Amino acid sequence: MIGAGPAGAATALFAARRGHRVVILDKESFPRDKPCGEGLMPNGLGTLRALDVAGLTREAPPLNGIQFGLPHAPPAVVAFPEHGGERSGLGIRRLDFDARLVSALDREPRIRFHPRTEVRAVSYAPTGGPTVVTSDGELRAGRVVIADGLRSSLRHRLGWTVGPRPPHRYGIVAHWQVDGPLDPWVRITFADGLEVYEGPVAGRQRMVALLCYQARMREFGGRLEARYREIVEAIRPGLRHAERVGPVYAVGPFWYRASTVAAHGVFLVGDAAGFTDPITGEGIAAGLRQARAVVDALDSPTPERVYREAHRRLTKDPRRVASLLLRLSRTPALVARGIRSHERAPQTLSTLLGIGFGYWGFNRITPREWIRLFTGR
Length: 377
Ligand SMILES: Cc1cc2nc3c(=O)[nH]c(=O)nc-3n(C[C@H](O)[C@H](O)[C@H](O)COP(=O)(O)OP(=O)(O)OC[C@H]3O[C@@H](n4cnc5c(N)ncnc54)[C@H](O)[C@@H]3O)c2cc1C
Prior knowledge:
- The protein is of the alpha+beta class.
- The chain has a domain at 169-251: D-Amino Acid Oxidase, Chain A, domain 2.
- It is 34% helix and 25% strand.
- It has eleven helices and 21 strands.
- A seven-stranded mixed beta sheet has the order 5-4-14-15-16-13-17, with helices on both faces. The chain has a three-stranded antiparallel beta sheet with strand order 2-6-3.
- Helix 1 packs parallel to helix 7 (283-298).
- The termini are far apart.
- The chain binds flavin-adenine dinucleotide (FAD).
- Flavin-adenine dinucleotide is lined by residues 2-8, 25-28, 34-40, 118-119, 147-149, 153-154, 171, 173, 209, 251, 270-272, 275, 278, 281-285, 287.
C-alpha cells in the first residue's frame, strides 16, 4: 500500500480487517498538512463509520449544504439531500483528520506502517507479484495498491497517466480564525474567472480556497499571499477583520485520469485513480468509497476486472456533475439562471448534488427541470 492519505489509510484498514497483512508506506512524517477544501461530503460518512476509527470526526463541525452565489447578491441555499439516514457533511481539518487515520494504522496488528519512506517505482512481471522500489530497498507483494495522490508519480512511471487536461485550473488555500457563531454552510461564490470556497473546520477556523483558471494565476506571480488576501477580502468582506493562520498553499493543475485503474496486481485508488476538480468537494468521500471497493474486489477471482467496474460505477455520474459545474464556473450568466431557477424549484440543485454523491442517476431530474436550470425560466 503506497500513500497514507484518506484513500490509502482507509484501504489499509479495510484490508487488515478482512485478514490481509498490509505494509503501508508514505514519504511524509505525520501529522502533515494537505491543501484541501476540507469538506467531507455526506456520502463519505457511511464509509467512515464502517472504518470505526474512534474520534476521527471529533470536533468537526457539521455542514448543512452549499450556498451558491455571485458576488454581492443573495445566494441559492441548497441543503444536502437526505439519503440512507445521512444529511450533513463535516468540516474536517486535514492536519488532524489524516493524523488520526494514521494513528489507527499504528493500532492495527496486521498493519506495518512506514512513514518517511518514499516509493520510487512499482513494476510488475508476468509471475510473482509486483515489486516496489523504496528509499529503503525493494519489497515484493501479492498486490500493490497505489494511493499517492493527484499528481501520482507512480501512475506516471507505470505509463498510466492521462492529463492534466486544459483549461488548467489551480487552487489557493488558507485558513482564517473567526469569532462568532459557527456557520455550517459551504459558500461558493462564482466571480470573474475564479470561485471562492469557504467552509467551517474545527477550532473556529474557516478554510477559504480560491479556484481559478490559468489566466488568473498570473496575478499571483511573486505575491501569492497578498493577492490571495485582496481577493478574499473583496469577495468576502466579512473576513476583513479575521486573522489568517498558517501558510497559503497553491496547488494544481487538476483533471487527471488513469488509462487503467487496475492491472497485473497493481490497483489505483483515490486521486491517483483520477480526479476532475475540487468543484464538487468530493475527493475524500470518493477515496473512502474506492478503498472499500478495492478491498471487496481482492476477495474475487478476478480482482482487477471487478475493481475496474466498481471504480467506473462509483465515478461516472460524479464526474459528469463535476463537468457540469465546471461549465457553470466559466459562465456567470448560467450561474445567475441557476440561482433564479432555484427560487422556483428549490429541489433541483439539491437533487443534482445527490447525483454527484452517487445517490441516484441523472434521470432523477426531469427534462422540464433541466430546461428551467439552464434558462432560469
Ligand atoms: C484546492 C482543493 C480543494 C479540495 N476540496 C475538497 C473538499 O472540500 N472535499 C473533498 O472531499 N475533497 C477536496 N479536495 C480533494 C481532496 O483533497 C483529495 O481528493 C484527497 O486528498 C485525495 O486523497 P488521497 O488519499 O487519494 O491522496 P492524498 O491525500 O494526496 O494522499 C497521498 C499520500 O501519498 C503520499 N505519497 C505521495 N507520493 C508518494 C511516494 N512516491 N511514496 C510514498 N508516499 C507517497 C503523500 O505523502 C500523501 O500522504 C480538494 C483538493 C484541492 C486541491
